Amino acid sequence: xxxxxxxxxxxxxxxxxxxxxxxxxxxxxxxxxxxxxxxxxxxxxxxxxxxxxxxxxxxxxxxxxxxxxxxxxxxxxxxxxxxxxxxxxxxxxxxxxxxxxxxxxxxxxxxxxxxxxxxxxxxxxxxxxxxxxxxxxxxxxxxxxxxxxxxxxxxxxxxxxxxxxxxxxxxxxxxxxxxxxxxxxxxxxxxxxxxxxxxxxxxxxxxxxxxxxxxxxxxxxxxxxxxxxxxxxxxxxxxxxxxxxxxxxxxxxxxxxxxxxxxxxxxxxxxxxxxxxxxxxxxxxxxxxxxxxxxxxxxxxxxxxxxxxxxxxxxxxxxxxxxxxxxxxxxxxxxxxxxxxxxxxxxxxxxxxxxxxxxxxxxxxxxxxxxxxxxxxxxxxxxxxxxxxxxxxxxxxxxxxxxxxxxxxxxxxxxxxxxxxxxxxxxxxxxxxxxxxxxxxxxxxxxxxxxxxxxxxxxxxxxxxxxxxxxxxxxxxxxxxxxxxxxxxxxxxxxxxxxxxxxxxxxxxxxxxxxxxxxxxxxxxxxxxxxxxxxxxxxxxxxxxxxxxxxxxxxxxxxxxxxxxxxxxxxxxxxxxxxxxxxxxxxxxxxxxxxxxxxxxxxxxxxxxxxxxxxxxxxxxxxxxxxxxxxxxxxx
Length: 636
Hints:
Blueprint (H helix, E strand, L loop, with lengths): L5 H10 L5 H12 L6 H18 L2 H18 L2 H17 L3 H18 L2 H17 L3 H17 L3 H17 L4 H18 L2 H18 L2 H13 L7 H17 L3 H14 L10 H14 L3 H17 L3 H17 L3 H48 L5 H39 L7 H30 L8 E3 H18 L3 E6 L5 E3 L2 H17 L6 E10 L5 E9 L6 H5 L22 H11 L3 E6 L5 E8 L6
Parallel strand pairs: 2-4
Antiparallel strand pairs: 1-3, 4-5, 5-7, 6-7
Helix pairs in contact: 1-2, 1-3, 2-3, 3-4, 3-5, 4-5, 5-6, 5-7, 6-7, 7-8, 7-9, 8-9, 9-10, 9-11, 10-11, 11-12, 11-13, 12-13, 13-14, 13-15, 14-15, 15-16, 15-17, 16-17, 17-18, 18-19, 19-20, 21-22, 22-24
């Protein structure tokens, strides 16, 4: 029954929209049908009704409510309600994978809310934008937007939005960045916030995320307990995709624990609960995957195989490789149990290939993520430098130095963080090198491939660390550059001999005293000569020349040049020559690895020593790298 205190009932509908969406639908619909609400209250009720339908997965029923809300809000001139209506409609476009339309609505909502200064609502819009980027597999943009939303939510102490963002970030760190530690931190922080708020829906979501985390770690008992608790808290339903994820995790854990009867009971619940979603392309794949998993656990291989072909295509299209491999392992065991050893062996080989690929892709994705973060830090640093160039204040100089320190610390952190996934790859290669179940030639191929990748990435780590540790300074000890460079040339002649390259030194016997430690001078010669040897063909010549330049009227310099007769550089290559992580069109003659950091490191080292570096090259005519370093002059 409707009473006259309409504001109280509107607030009640809003209060239960997450915990009891069905009741929110009934109450809001009853109020909308009456003549009691004002126009603004009617818009609020339409938005509540829409959101409740979203939580119930009834998108076709909820979308007209959001559309009505937008029309009415535009008529009233209430910009806050108009923005919220845009945000709501964006969600409907999102669930139907209409991403361009979704982003347009979110952009309209953001524009209105920024003008109003409503930080809390802006944060919620940013969460939805991040969701779009996540599904579009634009991981860096998605995580960046989630972080922006989290910062805003913290500024206004919006704990519910904070918790939602942390849950989403946990998923991104687990499945995209492959950083389980950070993912776990986000999940536990989200659970604490939801419990503080008493939000049972949020607590359930956090429990499911934690359960999936422990399932991946092989702690099936703890995983099952968390997933069961999460499911029990969804008494009034949940969004279908979230509920399916919950069920799928429970069934997987039960099968792993050998509790097939309990798994069968949960699978029947899925079929009963989602009987109306069997033709929904966004959900049917999960339902069928669960069915295949159940059939295999029961030993019904013949019944599972036809369905499995269909499920494979669905999982591959959505990039769910782990679920694919998990089910294939069960299938391989069942085939072996039926005596179909050849087919089981073929499938196990395929699984081994996929796990190797997954491990490699995870490591490279993690590298790509940290590289993007480094690029962002560098871009921010460069922008800050540009901003303060024209500011003649001592505090600006101090800030610049602080930014450089932060940048160096971040590079060191990047390299340190990458060692963990690399160690994982090496552990896999060691296992493949000793596993008696894999044929010798296959085992060696896998081991070589993974070790090749890990070696290349470890080279990158070492050079990144070298960038970080070169805190060079003008004051310091005097070093004879000639002595250092002679030593480097001598140590690298073995590489030249192996490639049948003649290294010609045109160096006089003068002392070139430079204000520097030995290592920076080693870095300069080692990288320039190494590059020359990489890009030079068999039987060619590399020339190293040093000479004195300058005059008493001005400063004296040591001029170093390294010349090769390799493929030379295009104008595009020369433009990006000294940028970190850049890939050139020219390739080493024997496919040697190149991290893309060597010349950047040389340029940085030369600059810190007060010198300059440049390159002269034409495509097909080889290249000459020139370095000039200021010499120490004894004023006595």
